[in-house]
Amino acid sequence: MAVHVVDHPLVRHKLGLLRQANLSTKDFRALSNEVARLLTYEATKDLLTEKVTINGWAGPVEVDNIMGKTLTVVPILRAGIGMLDGVLDMIPGAKVSVVGLFRNEETLEPVQYYVKLANKIEERMALILDPMLATGGTLLATVDLLKEAGCKNIRGIFLVAAPEGLRKLEERHPDVEVYTASVDTCLNDDGYILPGLGDAGDKIFGTK
Ligand SMILES: O=P(O)(O)OC[C@H]1O[C@H](OP(=O)(O)OP(=O)(O)O)[C@H](O)[C@@H]1O
Ligand SMILES: O=c1cc[nH]c(=O)[nH]1
Ligand SMILES: [Mg+2]
């Protein structure tokens, strides 16, 4: 399985700011989108393009166009919404497929409450957005439902990932590629990533 840790100074700097305990909602939101933007740049490096000829200022010129029904971004509610603007800054025409899942606080199992996928999803690359990959339960449930819908090419962008979740993904879906700013140390007894960011959903939405 491919895990791409994006080791760019801007990403490392912004991730360091995100880890601060007393960050305001506004700053956490802004930084999440900024890191998402940079991770998107890396995650889309090999998108297929085709040559087209356009009218340039000095006559016809051959340029590159991203091909056809290329991708859909898949924010996982709620916290994935905190990365969506940043990703759409980079890919403004992307179709958005929304998946609603929350983690049961006791069992840590994902609970699904909403799904609305883009049309022709089987022809698109799916780019999953979630700030946190912890136990991996939420990501596995999302990949399962995308594959059931016919999706063959799936990637995920996470601000922070835990080794436990990556191991689970490797066992169940080794074809899924991960792009993250950091693989952190481990999970605590409540399933939170250490050193991590805390509860990303609460920080992005200002709840708590
Ligand atoms: O890898 P896992 O152990 O499944 O945990 C990761 C999930 O937990 C968080 O969502 P949460 O359940 O807090 O929902 P929220 O986005 O609505 O806050 C996070 O945004 C991931 O979706
Ligand atoms: O560390 C974690 C783990 C799951 N969800 C979060 O928001 N943070
Ligand atoms: Mg949450």
TrEMBL record:
Which reactions is this enzyme annotated as catalysing?
A: UMP + diphosphate = 5-phospho-alpha-D-ribose 1-diphosphate + uracil
Q: Which UniProt keywords are listed?
A: Allosteric enzyme, Glycosyltransferase, GTP-binding, Magnesium, Nucleotide-binding, Transferase
Residues that hold uracil according to the record: I193, G198, D199, A200
Report activity regulation: Allosterically activated by GTP.
The Swiss-Prot or TrEMBL record lists the needed cofactor(s) as: Mg(2+)
Q: Is Nucleotide-binding given among the entry's keywords?
A: yes
* MF-aspect GO terms: GTP binding; magnesium ion binding; uracil phosphoribosyltransferase activity
Residues annotated to bind 5-phospho-alpha-D-ribose 1-diphosphate: R78, R103, D130, P131, M132, L133, A134, T135, G136, G137, T138, D199
State the source organism's domain of life.
Bacteria
Q: Where is the Phosphoribosyltransferase domain?
A: 5-207
Cellular component per GO? cytoplasm
Could you say which enzyme class this protein belongs to?
transferase
The protein's matches in Pfam families, at most eight in alphabetical order, are given as:
UPRTase (PF14681)
Q: In which pathway does it act?
A: Pyrimidine metabolism; UMP biosynthesis via salvage pathway; UMP from uracil: step 1/1
Q: Return the cofactor note field.
A: Binds 1 Mg(2+) ion per subunit. The magnesium is bound as Mg-PRPP.
EC number(s) recorded for this UniProt protein: 2.4.2.9
An individual GO BP term = uracil salvage
PANTHER family per the record?
ADENINE PHOSPHORIBOSYLTRANSFERASE (PTHR32315), URACIL PHOSPHORIBOSYLTRANSFERASE, CHLOROPLASTIC (PTHR32315:SF4)
Summarizing the function annotation, the protein's role is:
Catalyzes the conversion of uracil and 5-phospho-alpha-D-ribose 1-diphosphate (PRPP) to UMP and diphosphate.
Family classification? Belongs to the UPRTase family.
Protein name in the entry: Uracil phosphoribosyltransferase
The organism's taxonomy opens as:
Bacteria, Pseudomonadati, Thermodesulfobacteriota, Desulfovibrionia, Desulfovibrionales
* Gene name in the database record: upp
